[in-house]
Amino acid sequence: MPATTIHFVRHGKVYNPNHVLYERLPGYHLSQRGARMAAATARFLALNPATQSVSALYTSPLERAQETAGIIRDQINLGRRERGERPLDLIEDGRLIEAGNEFRGKRIGRGDGALWRDGNWRLLTNLMRPSWGESYQSIAGRVSDFVREQLEHRPGEQIIVVSHESPIWSFRHMLETGRPEHNMLLRRTALASVTSVTFESGSGSVLGITYADPAARLA
Questions:
Q1: Which pTM value belongs to this model?
Q2: What is the Cβ-side half-sphere exposure of residue 191, based on CA atoms within 13 angstroms?
Q3: What is the dihedral of CA 138, 143, 144, 150, to 10 degrees?
Q4: Helices 32-47 and 63-82: crossing angle, nearest 10°?
């Protein structure tokens, strides 16, 4: 059976001077540091013999993910053009979007709009559920649907996916433990990191999971 590898990349650092919990809000872009993080990860992927042969590049519809994916695309396409290969395009997929969160638009800190005002703290009743937004079951389920589709239509290929911390970790936790519920404080999904999952294309069995943090020195 051929093996399919999906490389899940978390977006780079976001420009957010007011410390807003932006979740799915529009208008939140990579900071200058975030762009450098994305560039470091792009170089890492472009130099990796496996991802040099990537066949598709998917992204969440949110700006920070699309900007990260665009930097990766441009770097990988340099090599593809030199080899006479067709450049990659970005493919947007809503299943890769950030988790829904009832705290969207709130600020971390004090003053008007702060997270801890107006009784918002009452939503923090269960770190494993979570109790303040989209369930981990829902998050992992939509990523699973995306992955099953890739295994069916792109067997044996290398695929890059740019998404967000919660979808990437919820899916990985489900693969490793059988359940997506987890303590969000214990995630291992750094900004611009790469979580690579290799599947047997026919059965969908997991053959291996690796993790890399190419932008660690920029964090």
A1: 0.91
A2: 21
A3: 160
A4: 40
Six token digits for residue 4: 């399919």
How many C-beta atoms lie closer than 10 Å to residue 201's C-beta?
19
Q: Domains, the chain, ranges and CATH?
A: 3-17+29-101+135-218 (3.40.50.1240)
The token pair at 110 is 């004090």
DSSP structure string for 85-151: PPPP-EEE-GGGSPPPBTTTT-BSSSSTTBTTSTTGGGG-S-TTTTSSBS-HHHHHHHHHHHHHHHH
- Alpha-carbon distances, residue 45 vs 41, 51, 72, 166 (angstroms): 6, 6, 8, 22
Q: What is the mean pLDDT of the chain?
A: 89
For residues 8 and 24, what is the distance between their CA atoms, to the nearest angstrom?
19
Higher pLDDT, 89 or 21: 89
165-177 and 136-153 helices, crossing angle to 10°: 80
Tokens standing for residue 209? 């999971």
pLDDT 10s digits, 90-121: 999 999 999 987 666 566 544 444 444 554 54
Q: Tell me: the pLDDT tens digits for 71-97?
A: 999 999 999 999 999 999 999 999 999
**Do residues 134 and 25 lie in contact, with contact meaning Cβ atoms separated by under 8 Å?**
no
Examine residue 180 and say whether the peptide bond preceding it is cis (omega within 30 degrees of 0): no
